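QUALITY CONTROL LOG
STEP: pairwise intake check
CHECKER ROLE: data steward
CRITERIA: each record must contain a sequence immediately followed by its structure tokens, with no blank fields

ENTRY 1 OF 2
RESULT FIELD BELOW
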Amino acid sequence: MIKVFTAVSVFFAAAAASARWVWWRSTIPGLPVLVYHKIGTPPPGSKLKDLWVSSEKFRAQVAWLLSQGYTTVLFSDLLKAHKNEKELPEKAVLITFDDGYENNYTQAYKILRELGAKGNIFIVFNTIGKANTWHNPDTEPWVNMASMEMLKEMQESGVIELGSHTMNHPNLEKIPLEDAAWELTESKKQLEAALGKEMCAFAYPYGAGAYTPAVRELALKAGYMLDFSFKQGKTPWPWNRAAGPIDRLFIKRGDNNLDLMLHLTRGVSRLF
């Protein structure tokens, strides 16, 4: 009796674990846009470990994408496709990084270059060469951000393109609209002046404001042609810009290649 009970328990535990991954869902169409943050090992005391993907895992994920016939594209490729100036590859995927950490240069850029892949980074202008000061250092240790020299090298390489992530990384829904407008317009202006290239892409910090009409209108008025949310999912392509921003697929520290495949095909990998 005990053996039967144990076998049944193991069966249901295995079934529950299997159902956790959404392999049983139908595939959905749309453009897959992956979002990473930090590449490397979390510092001691980090409470946001999900934002860290090890360099080994990142390399394996990019290698898997390429082995499956995906083509990594840049913001400029996406913009040309949106304007009907060129077609995206059949299995296009956009790799993005939020914030602009130093490890995006020391780890991610090196891996992308070695594998022949491309990526895109959203930059918080006032923290370039400093630290991620929007975090409370008592609960989440600060880490170094990429310097302007690093950003210029990555941009000039053709491996990485850059976009805006505001001046200071505020929650755009929690500040006055006039302050939000400044964060959006000034970051575009400063990045373009420093890097000598138009900033066509913007990502909303925390995803806040991406689906708030008053905030999104400010982003469009600032001149961004591509705007990205933090909402989990895939956006139909061709993209209807008036309908809303481009959604993304958040890649977490614990995600494996099965998770990656499910993100790309189902728009989400796990139920919990």
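ENTRY 2 OF 2
RESULT FIELD BELOW
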Amino acid sequence: MSEAEDTFISHLIEMRDRLLRAVLAVVIIFICLFPWAKDIYGLLAQPLLAALPKGGQMIATEITTPFFVPMKVTLMAAFLLALPWVFYQAWAFVAPGLYQHEKRLGAPLVIASVILFVTGMAFAYFLVFPLVFHFIVSVTPTGVAVMTDIGKYLDFVLTMFMAFGVTFQVPIAVVLLVKMGMVSVAKLREIRPYVIVGAFVVGAIFTPPDVVSQFMLATPLWVLYELGIIVAALISKPKPESGSDYVPMSDSDMDSELDRIEADRLGSEPHKSSDAP
């Protein structure tokens, strides 16, 4: 087996071990949370239950839904709790192949990415959900009972969590684009009007058809874009001149130096041949 194949197999083995450790952490936390699965789902459903009229409730339209939906919510909670460990395993696998400056930039970006994703989910849960659900209940026609299926509610919540979690990654994306040289800070400022329009388009696509939730997604997207520009401008500032007196060699100086090295080499060859047996 060649050295390249041996290295490739060792990387695959390490990736498998890191993945198993991450999955094992999620499974262990899931098992620990399993006895409180119904309570965890009740916590997730609280924003909707609080908005329903007195006596309102949620329903299950399928036989297995009352069991599987709380299990899915518990698994999601276990993954969120294990997220720092999961990202650490991914970082430990990737970090040895990075340069030192990439490590210095990568670790803070990974930590910031996790924090921003969780912040986006919290923003949706504590601010967006109460406003959206109260709005939906308030416009419900008279005589219509709002009884949402728990499976449909879970799908809606996961979609909103993903939308806000990904939206809150905008500063990370802006910083990476600037650091990779794909776009300049000046260009980002120039396209600001298009980004604002795009933010409201994204808000209209990924939120319910009401103005409140659209603004609740579009406004943070715009603010986070501005935050990303500020951070990118700070970290991409040119370094001050070191003040050294170094002056690059001219072409003539380089040719003279090469001629001198060649002359020294030719002058040393007779000595080498005379010492040979």
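INTAKE CHECK: passed for both entries
DESCRIPTIVE NOTE, ENTRY 2: The chain has a mean pLDDT of 82.
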